[in-house]
Write a structure and sequence with these properties.
mainly beta; OB fold (Dihydrolipoamide Acetyltransferase, E2P); globular; Mo/tungstate-bd_C_term_dom; ATP binding; ATP hydrolysis activity; ATP-binding; ABC transporter: ATP-binding protein
């Protein structure tokens, strides 16, 4: 990403996305591009859009001990009721600290299954909706494998994909 002003991402001879490194990293056109950029790559949480009792679009996520949360989506997702979607969220947007805008930050208590210290940060593996996802934690966050820790999901950075087509439908 540091060697070019623009990047073309190809798959099977077809152009998937052309853009600046920042555009491709933050606003990938599809799940292939999202998973291609970054290390660890973007997390994909499979879920479905529902409407809550106030007619707000939400998704359900389940963490440790079957802890269930309903996370509000943008109002533009209301017409997606009942649709299977994939929430894309990069590891650096799942941390021990709330995001910049706490109104779009959701906390889940999650079991730390793997901790991988890398020096400037620690990569933690946890499960959400029975899917393994990576989180990027501060090396000062004093936790151990097997411990349940409060982790914050900065949903202002989430990308929403159609589960069937794998194309981006919102960010």
């Amino acid at each position: 990403m540091t060697l070019a002003d623009r990047i073309a991402v190809m798959k099977d001879g077809e152009l998937q996305q052309l853009g600046t490194p920042k555009e491709i990293y933050n606003k990938p056109n599809n799940m292939f591009v999202a998973g291609f950029m970054g290390s660890p790559s973007m997390n994909f949480i499979h879920t479905m859009v529902d409407l809550d009792s106030n007619d707000n679009p939400v998704i359900k996520v389940v963490g440790t001990n079957e802890q269930e949360h309903h996370i509000k989506l943008p109002d533009s997702m209301r017409d997606q009721d009942g649709k299977k979607v994939v929430i894309g969220l990069r590891p650096e947007h799942i941390t021990e600290q709330p995001g910049e805008d706490e109104s779009v930050s959701t906390q889940l208590d999650l079991l730390l299954e793997v901790l991988e210290p890398t020096g400037p940060d620690t990569i933690a593996m946890v499960k959400v909706n029975d899917q393994e996802i990576a989180c990027r934690l501060s090396p000062e966050f004093d936790v151990s494998v097997g411990q349940v820790a409060p982790l914050h999901f900065d949903l202002s950075k989430a990308v929403i994909f159609d589960a069937a087509t794998e194309q981006r439908i919102a960010y």
